[in-house]
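DM from R.C. (forwarded with permission)

"hey, sorry to bug you on a friday — could you get me a structure for this? deadline for the figure draft is monday and I only need the backbone to look sensible"
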Amino acid sequence: MLRTIRCLALALAVFAMTDLPAQTPPPATPQAPPCGDAMHRQFDFWVGSWDVTGPKGEKTIGRSRVESRLGDCVIHEHWFGGGGTIGESFNIYNAATGNWEQFWVDNGGNRLHLVGGLVDGRMVLEGRHDKPDADSGLFGRERIAWTPNADGTVRQLWESSKDDGKTWTVSFDGLYHKATTPVP
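My reply, with the result:
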């Protein structure tokens, strides 16, 4: 009996050392990138390095570097204003809501959250202030539209409302031209 057990142990040891053909896993199914669909690409026209002028191409008012980041899921802007304002925006298509969102922060302690989407070829995002005006009781609103132009420029029109969107005034009107020198 002891001899049978030794033979079985020896056979198991030899079997364990034997090279068996490796099990190959089945080929992986190619996965589409998480942000590769057309909805996530709608704001790509803004990606680039830009010199920003007034709406008629006059004096430079700032520079901007806009990058596609994090697996092409985020459009990240770096803004350098002529008046010393430095800001960044993070733009993302929210597949759960079907909207684009922008989160803007700057060196003045300001922040802005906008929501919207593509409207007639323009990216239009809008947001409401957190608190109503102390005097009127009405909420302020911000609306920004980016329009790609046939010549490769992009117009950014920022409008503000102090009466919850009844009337609007222009806060910023800039024309983004491809930069001729690198933007930091």
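R.C.: lifesaver. The chain has one helix and ten strands.
me: no worries. The longest strand covers residues 122-132.
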